[in-house]
Model the fold of this input.
Amino acid sequence: MHDNDLDSSLPVEQDALGLTPAGAALKRARRHLGLQLGLGMLLVMAVFALLAPWLAPHDPYLQNLSLRLLPPAWADGGQLSHLLGTDHLGRDYLSRIIHGARISMMIGLGAATIGAVIGVTLGIIAGYFGGWLDQAVNFLVTCQLAVPSLLLIMALVFVIGQSITVVIFVIGATHWVFYLVVTRSATLRIRELDFVAAAGAMGASKWQIAVKEILPNLVNQIMVIFTLEVAVAILNEATLSFLGLGVPSPIPSWGLMIAEGKTAMFFQPWLVILPGIALFVLVIAINLLGDGVRDVTVTNRRS
Done:
């Protein structure tokens, strides 16, 4: 039922070449340098995160005060056994950065997933059912936007307590507005299409139509927002950890590592620069991937 409605929006070039929407998107992906670069960078960091226990040369929690504040191996006084040096407690910096990738990606993916569940559910309800439900959802959005998200996150973490689980749920529970706005707008358009009316005429209930007919046609928009919200969640976690309200010490978090190194940044700048570079590369990779996914999944773009 979906194909007849979606085919009309395909560009002339796709029809002439006999490409399906998936085939046309794959063709664009092969020519999209930003998507390939972002995906490649993200895959490398994902491998490091997944294999952190085996790739890290040392225990990221092991302290050795006799080796505290060692510079990187290429600087004077550095050691090859600690390639990126050590922190103020003598913990291997490379090992902590590698394990920090696991923490950041876990929090980013978890928070973005929670936000997607909340936002997409409310967006479909508001867009398809309308009426007082739409008004109630719009009121929730207004309330959410009235409070700065970072201040709300800080307050909730302060009240509930610090842990990885709390950080994931709090960030996810406060980052659903973009999902809602986009899915509501798309649902308002999709619900007027013929295949939705046909499903209703065949006896499908409203909930069945919402789940089986409307939701599959929102996947592209959800994917794009999801990738961007992962990056936002990672930055929020780093900010919270930097302020002492995120991942509790001694768990390796890039934001926490920057906070711990800031007191010595003028004498040992690598303590701030190295985790900052890791955070920058991960967020840039995710943003490049998100922009690429947006570009290649736009069905009315010419090949």
Q: What stands out?
A: Confidence is low (pLDDT under 50) at residues 1-16, 299-303. The radius of gyration is 23 Å. The longest helix spans residues 93-129.
